[in-house]
Design goal:
By secondary structure, this protein is an all-alpha fold. Helices cover about 60% and strands about 0% of the residues. The protein has a single domain, classed as Hypothetical protein af1432 (Orthogonal Bundle), CATH 1.10.3210. It contains 16 helices and no strands.
Length: about 325
């Protein structure tokens, strides 16, 4: 028996009957022939495609909360993605669900995030005249934009998990629902950590009603949320938190919106970032010939507005600054000789 078939068979032996089995996937956008010597299951293959794609590598230079922070220990979209993956895999393993599917969804969930975090999302929403949602863009990245317009051709379950990690769409798989929760677990806690590092918060600022339920330090809060999701889901058969912990998590998110996400110190540069991205958008919309060659063919069927949005959304923070500087900031005169 081929190794891939052994792995698929083992899933049926060890995983819960409600798990998403890799040999029962609803398939890919475009059917593929599987090589006889391929040792990976479908979801393992999806993770590899995501981790090796260009959009994934760019996550290391994209803002999480703080714009261009000075210091090596602030989170980026890359570190956030890794943290989500680790928490989600812990939950999936404890519930006997498919860790490989969980990892693939977690690794791909933020591929469509803009430069400068949610400030970039807001800027593109203004440019398009309609909401820009990073989860929808993440799906577009894996379906259309990667591999020079070919897309990664991922499985249905991974694609819908990426789309449903936030927003109105709820993933059909329990693994996708786990990532949806663990994304929140990760960002509320590491955003607190970064805010403390930046001198905006201290642990003592967190309301006692929240600390009493979730704990007083980073590791306690992550552990409380993770264990509660495991225990409550195991007892109820539904991926969910207990009422007490869910209320504490919502209170913590509200606290962060008030003290961090809308904090004038933490967000003092966002207006500049948004103005910069909007000016870049206007420039490329009016000068489509300046777009990179690999974006040119897509204009005929996706439209200029959409393609310019794709280009801007894919930029890292530093690349956006560099392009803005190149296009709009006068350069010093250098004589030859």
């Amino acid at each position: 028996m081929e190794l891939r078939h052994i792995l698929e068979h083992q899933e049926h032996i060890r995983l819960d009957e409600r798990a998403a089995f890799s040999d029962e996937s609803q398939g890919r956008l475009f059917p593929e022939e599987i090589a006889d010597d391929d040792v990976r299951t479908a979801y393992q293959r999806d993770t590899d495609r995501i981790v090796h794609c260009k959009s994934f590598r760019r996550l290391m230079h994209k803002t999480q909360v703080f714009l261009s922070p000075e210091g090596d220990h602030y989170r980026t979209r890359m570190t956030h993605t890794i943290e989500v993956s680790r928490i989600a895999r812990t939950v999936a393993r404890a519930l006997n669900l498919n860790e490989d599917l969980t990892e693939a969804i977690a690794m791909g969930h933020d591929l469509g995030h803009t430069p400068f975090g949610h400030a970039g999302e807001g800027a593109l929403s203004e440019c398009l005249g309609k909401p820009f949602y990073h989860n929808e863009q993440s799906l577009r990245v894996v379906d259309v934009l990667e591999k020079n317009g070919e897309g990664l051709n991922l499985t249905y379950e991974v694609r819908m998990g990426i789309l449903g990690h936030t927003g109105e769409h709820i993933p059909e798989t329990l693994e996708g629902q786990i990532v949806r929760y663990c994304d929140r677990f990760a960002y509320v806690n590491h955003d607190i950590d970064d805010a403390i590092r930046g001198g905006i918060l201290s642990n003592e600022d967190i309301p006692k009603s929240i600390s009493r339920v979730l704990g007083t330090i980073h590791s306690e809060r992550v552990n409380s949320l993770t264990c509660d999701l495991i225990n409550t889901s195991r007892e109820s058969g539904v991926i969910q938190l207990s009422q007490e912990v869910d209320i504490a998590l919502q209170e913590l998110r509200s606290f962060l919106f008030e003290k961090v996400y809308r904090n004038p110190i933490a967000k003092g540069q966002e207006n500049k970032a948004q103005s910069m991205l909007k000016r870049l958008y206007d420039y490329y919309f009016n000068n489509p010939h300046a777009l990179p060659p690999d974006f040119q063919p897509q204009m005929s069927f996706d439209g200029l507005e959409r393609i310019v949005c794709d280009y801007i959304a894919g930029m890292t923070d530093h690349y956006a600054i560099d392009k803005y500087t190149e296009l709009f900031i006068p350069m010093g005169w250098h004589t030859r000789g």
